[in-house]
Structure formats: C-alpha cells, structure tokens
Amino acid sequence: MEDDREWMYTGWKKGGCHTKEWFEKTEKFVENARGESTTHAVIRCPCNKCGNMYSHDKRTVTLHLCKDGFVQGYKVWDKHGESWSIVSAQMEVDDGEDVDRLDHMLEDLQAEFVNNPEDSPTKEVEELFKLLQDLEMPLHGHTMVTILQFVTRLMGIKSKFGFSAKCYKAILDLISDVLPADHKVPKDIYRSKKLLKALGMPYEKIDICPSKCMIFWRDHEKLDKCLKCGQSRYIEVVNEDGEKVKTKRARKQLRWMRLTPRLKRLFLARRIARRMRWRKNRTSRKDGVMQHPSDGDAWKALDSFDPEFASEEMNVRIGLATDGFTPFSMTAASYSCWPVFAIPYNLPPEDCMTDEFMFLSLIIPGKEHPGTNLNVMLEPLIEELKELWEGVEAYDSYMKQKFKLRAAYLWSIHDYLAYGIFAGWRVSGRLGYPICGKETDCFWLDKGEKFCYFDCHRCFLPLDHPFRLQAQEFRKDTIVTKEPPKRRTGWEITEELSNLERNGDGFEGFGETHNWTHKCGLWELPYMRALQLPHNIDVMHQERNMCEALFNTVMDFPDKTKDNFKARVDLGNICNRPTLMLRENGGKPRAEFALRPNERKEVMKWMKDLKFPDGYGAGFRRSVNLKTMKINGLKSHDYHIMMERLIPVMFRGYINDEVWKAIAKLSYFYGQLCAKEISKEMMRETRGISTHVFASRRKYSHLRSSILCSIFLSISHMKQR
C-alpha cells in the first residue's frame, strides 16, 4: 500500500503551482477515500492544518489540500480506507486478547464529532485529540512507531522493573545516539510524563492531619491546624535564629485518584464498552447457579430499590476493597499503608476483578493504620460516589452516543479486622460477630481467657435438624431450640445508627447492646439502606486462617496447635469428652486426630517432594524444613491449594475415618465456595459445615475456638441432609 507517494509532498508547491501529477492523484485520492459514515460523504481532512483531526465533505477536503497540502508523514492512508477492514476486525475481536490499543480507543472517540463537525469539543476531548496528534507522529522518518507508542511502552517497562529516573534518562540517551538526527525521543522522564499527562488520569494530593483526625479539604482547605488534636498541618523547621518556622510542605498527604474519569474511559474502548453491558446481553445462564455477582440477591436488591437504575445496562456497580500492607521488606520498620481499590462488576466473569479493571482510588499513608479514622480518609471517595449516583455525562464508543453514566456502591471486601474498621463495628469482645450482635451465645473461656463461639452454629440449622437435640455431642447437657438471630436490614441499621447517643468518645451502650465505634460515611449514600451485603469477608483470608489452624493442630506442632493445655482444661469444663480429659498427674492424652512424630515426618517429606505445574503452587518445597520439622513462609494462595487439594490427601490413613471425613467435607465446602460457579442448593445443603468455618477462625481471638479438637469431633457427626 505504501508505494511511491513522494508526489504528495514534492508535487505540492506553496502558492498554488502544483504539478499535474499531484492534481490527478489528489483528486483520485479524495474520490476513493472512505469515511466512518455509510455514505462516506464526510471524510477526515488530511491537510497540514486539520491533520486528520476533523472531518469535512470531499469538496472542502480538496480545497484544504490545495491550500495547505498533505500532513507530513501520511503515506499509509489508514484513516481513509487502507487497512480499514483489518482495524475494524481487530476492534470487534471478543476472544479476550488485548486488542484495545490507545489509538483505536481514540479513533472511537472521533465518531462523536464526525456527524457534528461544528461542535466544539470539551476540554477533556481536546486533550485526547492532542494526544491523537502526537500518536500519529512517527518517532523518526524511517519508522511507523509513534512517539506515544514508544513512551508508553518504555514507561510500562520502567514501572514493571522499577528502575530509577537516572536509569530511564540513560536509556533515552543511548536510544537517541542510535536513532537518526531527526528523532523525537523525549529527553528525560519529565518530558515523558508531560506527554502522557493528556491521558486525563491525574491524582490529587489532599493534606491530612498527622494523626488522621481530619482532612484539609473543601471547607477546611485553608486551615493550618487540626480542629480535633491541634497538630500543625505543615512541617516545621528551625531557622538560623533557633525559631520554629512553618514550611508549605504538608506533614502527611492522602492521594486520591478520581474514579469518574476511569469509569468514563472504560466506555471509550469499543470492545470494553460492549462488555460493560454483558449482564444484559449474556447468553449462558443456569437456574440456581451463581456465575456472576449479578446472579446474587444483593445485586437484585439494589435493582428493586431503583428500577430506573437497573433498567440502564451501562450503569455500573462498584465494589471496594482495602487492607494494610508493608511497602518495604518484612525486616524493615513497621509501616502500614492502606490502598483502597474500586472494582466495576459490570464486566463478564473472565474480566471481572482482573488487574486491568481494578482501580486504585485512595492511598492512605502510614505508618500506623488509620483505625476508626479510616472513615475520615474515605470522604473524597464517598462524595464522588454521591455524584456518580446522580450521574455524569459520558460517551459510549460502542453505541456512538453520549449517555448519562451512573454508578452505585454494591459492597466491600476485606479481612475481618479491616471489615470492622470499614463498617464501624468493633470485631472483638462479646459482641464481635456483627450478624448476631446482642443475640450472640458466645461465652468466656476461663482458662483460655477469650470469648469462644463454639456451639453457636446449631441455631442456624433447620428447626427439625437432629443436631439441635443432641445434648452431649457439643456442649454437655445442652440442646438448642432457639431460632437463628434475625439479620438486620439496611433500614433497621440506619435507624439504629441514627438513635445512637454520644457518651464521651463513644456511644452509649457500647459493648452491651451494640459494638458501633463510629458511623461509616457510606451510610450517607441514598441507596445504602437497600444493600443486603454492604460488607464482606475475603474468603482467601478466612481460608488461610482455617487451613493454618487445622494443619498445625493435626500435625500437633507444640507451639502452634490449638489442642494445648489451656484448651484441654476448658474442654473438660464445657464438653463431655472423657478420652480427651487431662490425667490426674496433669498429662495430656494424645488426641485421635493428632499425628505421631514418625507420621508427621512422613507428611512433611511428602510435602517437600511435591511438584506442581508452573504457576499453580510454588511455596511448599522451599517452605518445608525437615531438620526443624517446621513450615514457614507459605502465602495465602499456597494455603488455598493446601485446603482444597492437599489436606484430604495428606491426612488420609493417619487419622480416624470419621474425623478424616469431616475434614474432607470442609475441604469440599471451600472448593465449592471458590469455584467459578456456585450452586445455591449446594450451599444450603452444606450450611452446617459453613457454620463451623466461622466457629474455628484462628487469627482473631473473638472468633477462634481454643477447643478446636472438640470441633473436629463435632464436625465428624455431620451428614448431608
């Protein structure tokens, strides 16, 4: 296609003395040029001023070319029909491959102004047009690689491998020495970032109190001190006279990446815009099977609250997730940084919650975790969620039209400690379990000195279930006839929060009738009371805690097992387990679920020799130490594999069959819970097992049971209903 087209530039003369060849070939070019419309009456103007940025009728395009000539470097007429079918085919690919290049997305955006060339674009679109112009400029005269393609790829490499700005500058210098003299390689990282700034994904820095009491934002933007603790907003230094002088540098800052432009950008890529309406156009749906969040009752509850919101297929449901992490090495000083991620759930299951569709919304600095002040740090995000509920103007490149984009918060996902901080409910103490609340049946362990939730699960079983009338199999001399605690609706929680009365720094009745520590700002959202599951526990965290406790107890590691001396004393007080009672001389009889030393060594050696396919599980061989007979350094994914695949295999033949069956059922439950498809009927049938999952958590003292040995025995009596 790119034959000899030097005539485009050699045949055109400034002032109008163009060659005959130039006139003939230009006329033929305009006549055969193809545009985006069906009639091709309007095409992009490739003149030196329009630069393929604006569209006109063919007569106007001819006049522009005669006056200003062709834009430089336009020897492949891809904007006028050449390779158009190839580009279109790539745009329509729906096999999950990464075909939505930035230039394709910007071409989709052009259609907004093709039919109305007189409209003046918005500032956001003008920046993208400028980006398109930079995109079409080749890096030098002997390549089709554009400046933006080069910079984005190089910046991506820098981000992936983490080399410094000096290293980046050295690479640019080397590339500049190799390329021809007319190259357009940016000189340093500053110019590279400036080029990418037009992508329209900025972030804002918001000064915050060093103790995270408040943020200096909106009405408090000009304050110098915290209104609550009185700490200075800015860093203070000592001058030459020994006096403290305030600088204009904040002591601590919150980074806020607006969610709205990121959601808008999803609809500017045609393939992604089509997939954002997947739930309305889905072809595969199985009754009674959950394949996507839209199959759950929580999604449908929000739809029932606002049918108008539910009827628009492009409205977005958003999930939030946060947790603390240490950005430095594990041996460094303690530092807890809290990122907040937003996840759009409109995408199909294969794209939902993948890396490219998880947006970093807030970065809450450390070094201490925010605690109950997390609610203060979420203010910008909550305000943005209010605006998104009302709607913002956006453009859909798939339908090629403007629309009102609305988004709603659906739920949050955390580990249990972050759950309590995020929701405003203290997750320790007698009322630590937020579902039961004041109706809890937990009790205090005298020897273990903690609250225990053992045998609190039977009330969740059907009223005619045989477990309810077994007086000796769980707590001794105890039968359960009460119904499960009623799950409070959003309306009831809203009323409860509104009736709370302050008592110093807390609320009246704290620890007795409720465990509310603060009112989460999310309850200011107009639809919050309609949500069924506003907060959720991350199953991977819970699965790891359960697997670690189960593994250490069955392996009978002295310093990690839950079957310790204190547990045996408490066991004798609350359960009828004669074979596990402490002997008169204080000796502890071996439990039938605990492995002997030689059996433990065989299991450890088996784990040491395990081999998995690449990327499946990699932590076992390096984590098992046969000399010390310990296992360390496993990650959450390793425990995930261990719980669902290895636990039933490694213990079979070493422990009692009844206990092994109980463990195998627990493993099966987690396997079904983490499957791509979840059967609602299966979850109902296994809810007896699921209650024990929450009764034997390890990490959090208010939910873990120090008498895990009795739990194993009680699980062994479970049968499918």
TrEMBL record:
Domain Transposase-associated: 5-82
Pfam families, sorted: Transpos_assoc (PF13963), Transposase_21 (PF02992)
InterPro entries named among the record's database cross-references: Transpos_assoc (IPR029480), Transposase_21 (IPR004242)
Matching PANTHER family: OS08G0208400 PROTEIN (PTHR10775:SF185)
Protein name (record): Transposase-associated domain-containing protein
Species assigned in the record: Paspalum notatum var. saurae
Upper classification of the organism: Eukaryota, Viridiplantae, Streptophyta, Embryophyta, Tracheophyta
